[in-house]
């Protein structure tokens, strides 16, 4: 299992629209191959900063199967208009729990 | 519920020692007031970068009750020697799920 951690900066004043767009887009993740969970987290200290945390079975499920899908284009179409700048995306794996 | 997200850079070659120290320190979190989960994640792209993700009932449970405890000093004593630089710590809350 890998986590996708997408750090997203949202334009000032666009929080409600952005969060609604993510809620609308959830089914795209729920039906994606290898996606087992998704949640949007908002920073307490910097309220225009978000982290989209997505659990994928494998890195390829995210980077190939999802990124190259029509659903990824739909996702970006829904949320992209609210981005302040391109998201910074990385992946992590649990090593101690 | 808030997540503590502590971004930790570990000195080159110290990964195994750092991860062992975190494993050793887990009981400090398990007994902390308001702490409901803790896990250490390691970056896939940058293997010396980690995220310690801790679930707290409230911000105060982390920032006051834990940070001002003797257990926090013990935690820093265990893992601090492996830090490359001071951790960057923030908090998030789930807004869409």
| Terminal CA distance of chain A | 14 Å
CA-based gyration radius of chain A: 13 Å
Query: Total number of helical segments of chain A?
Result: 3
Q: How many β-strand runs of chain A?
A: 4
**What overall geometry of chain A do the principal axes of the alpha carbons give?**
globular
Largest sheet of chain A: 4 strands, antiparallel
Q: For the largest sheet of chain A, list the strands in their spatial order.
A: 2-3-1-4
Kindly report the oligomeric state of this protein. Answer: homodimer
Low-confidence stretches of chain A: none
Mean pLDDT of chain A: 98
How would you characterize this protein structure?
The structure is a homodimer of 97-residue chains. Chain A is an alpha+beta fold and 97 residues long. In chain A, helix 1 runs antiparallel to helix 3. A four-stranded antiparallel sheet of chain A has the order 2-3-1-4. Chain A has one domain (2-92): Alpha-Beta Plaits (2-Layer Sandwich), CATH 3.30.70.100. Chain A is globular and about 35 Å long. Chain A is built from three helices and four strands. Strand 2 (35-43) of chain A pairs antiparallel with strand 4 of chain B.
């Amino acid at each position: 299992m890998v986590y996708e951690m997408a750090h997203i900066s949202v334009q000032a004043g666009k929080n409600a629209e952005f969060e609604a767009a993510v809620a609308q887009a959830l089914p795209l993740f729920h039906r994606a191959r290898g996606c087992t969970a998704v949640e949007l987290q908002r920073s307490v200290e910097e309220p225009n900063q978000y982290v989209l945390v997505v659990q994928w079975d494998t890195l390829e499920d995210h980077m190939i199967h999802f990124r190259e899908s029509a659903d990824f284009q739909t996702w970006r179409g829904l949320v992209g208009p609210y981005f302040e700048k391109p998201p910074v995306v990385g992946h992590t794996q649990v090593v101690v729990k």
